[in-house]
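Lab notes, practical 5.
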Amino acid sequence: MKKLVHVVGAIIENEKNEIFCALRSPVMSLPNLWEFPGGKIELEETPEQALQREITEEFNCTIEVGQKVEDTTYEYEKFIVRLETYQAKLLEGIPIAREHADTRWVTRENLHTLNFAAADIPAVEKVANEKSSSENLK
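Output from the prediction step:
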């Protein structure tokens, strides 16, 4: 039976209405695919706590977690992923990749140009078709 891995991802938007995306390194599972940054939820952590911890550990910055955007379960060849994605706001620092091969700030219109991991695709499509968070505040 395949192992279920429960993970979270942050949809971090900057003041230019660009979304922060991270490229998984060749040594990670699902290598060389783009994702919304995040990671595994540890025992006794809420998804929001896990997301804040993962972004601090992997990108050396602090975020505020907002509302849930998507909750997707996807079966890969060797495991099953449940990915919860949340809107997030950068509070402190500039994201610096510690484990990922690359990072990019991408406009909603250009999200489809990146080769995202399959579990991220429903959130990518939802975000690409939404107005930016700053436009939603108008």
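Observations recorded by the TA: Confidence is low (pLDDT under 50) at residues 134-138. The longest helix spans residues 47-59.
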